[in-house]
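# step 3/5: fold
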Amino acid sequence: MLWASKLYIDSLKNTQEGAIAIEQLHSRGFTDESIEKFSIGIAPNSWSFLTEQLQNNNERIETGLGAGLLKKNEEKDRVYDAFRHRIMFPILDETGNPIAFGGRRLDEDDEPKYINSPETILFHKSKTLYGYNHARQSIQDEKKAVVVEGYTDVIACHQAGVTNVVATLGTALTAEHADKLSRVCDEVVLIF
């Protein structure tokens, strides 16, 4: 996941598609500091951006499939990238390691608007809060967590200096989320 995240970040910084994505992010109020802090990247408009780099290494391809980075067309016995032409938001664990991704469309005509990694051995959306690794200390210090709906809500709040904010990942607040937050704060405010 770290390997893919680095490739997505490099594509954001060093490709024409990346320049377009940065322009879109800036137009939505994202600062360069936030783009870097939240390790935002881009999956290019290619079915084989990641798969080409694996060079038929079956072990790594299987790992990519298991991580939800790649998909397999069983009929054609072909592996392809799960994310294409999307701004990539890595979902990090508590220690800051990427465990999944959320991809937002670059082209407003593409559907769906967001594609998220599937549940994997690393990623369970009912247990994971976006931005938790950045917000944990602030949540502890304030004894309060604010839970919002999505990635961009978290980033906007952090940019504005409200850093005790996290987001659920397409789910309601679960018992696992509540348990995690109860270990570091006394109050949780939901803004959905």
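# step 4/5: annotate
The longest strand covers residues 98-105.
# step 5/5: archive (pending)
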